[in-house]
Amino acid sequence: MTSRATLAGRIAALIEAQGPMSVAQFMSIALLDPQDGYYTTRDPFGPRKAAKGGDFTTAPEISQMFGEMLGLWLAQAWMDQGCPKNPRLVELGPGRGTLMADILRAAKVAPGFLSQVDVVLVEASPVLRRMQQEKLAASGVPIRWQAQFGSGLDERPLLLVANEFFDALPLRQYVKTARGWCERMVTARDGMLGFALAPVPLPPAALPRDLAAGLEGAPEGGVYESSPAALALAEDIARIVAGRGGAALLVDYGYQTRGGFGETLQAVGAHQFADILADPGGNDLSAHIDFAALAAAGRQGGATVLGPVTQGSFLTALGLGERAASLSTANPDAAQSLQTAVERLAGPSQMGSLFKALAFLPPAFDSAPGFNAPGFAGAAA
What we know:
By secondary structure, the protein is an alpha/beta fold.
């Protein structure tokens, strides 16, 4: 029996012993089980044709320019706030460490930034943590790791970046039925996993606030997804930024406003969609981000919220095209690959429209580069 089959069996046994589990609990186990979880046992990143393969490719792995733009944005936010002492630079879900390496290289243009900053990488995967340590060994800045956001990160100015992190946080699914809203659960029968609806509908007081407000507009069979973990984390980050200063930049794929009641939870393996329940631990699980809900959580935490704006408009406003032209001049042989990277990152048919950027700032600040504001002033690419 393979390791992943063992995880499916353990999940089935747990359900058969304790009863159906929420989709959120299933996601948590499938992604983060210490022995067989998807993120805890592998490097999932890489293009389809890479030597070791991969399940998906993120923006930092497409081009160094993505991380450079984000690094300059964070450095600019620090300078705009008067260069507060001892800021903490935090990345949620740092992947292979590529994004942080590019951020630190770009941020060198901000005088004094790297000598002040304390870097914290929030990473639950031992496999990825080792890759990050190797990638950042020569960064020249102190770096430490912790498994979760929280402990000890609320007493300094916070400069936080999260790229494709919130989409993998556990979510709950609710389905509109003739008898009311019922939560979708994961069940097991004879060792096989399946979906079923809870027999008793949730009372309105137990539903997410935004769902309860829109009960009348949902068709029968409509699905509502909510991630309490994502909203709580966003509110916590915003509270620190509002109280201590700094900025948070969240980049992910999703929708700006909820356009209806449909499910977006998906499984991906080897760059192809897969059955969500067929191979727990073997495929990535993620869902589209409800940016309106994240923005509301940020405001609840007391921060100024900017965006969401599309990744394409954000990167273009920051100078992605100009950076590509500069790199092409220095290395003409790379001009075509650089232009391809620009299209992948910012093109509307690639990542430019589906991906969005959202920012949290202290209450005294109401603008930032890329969010209907001029480009970089104090930091230049």
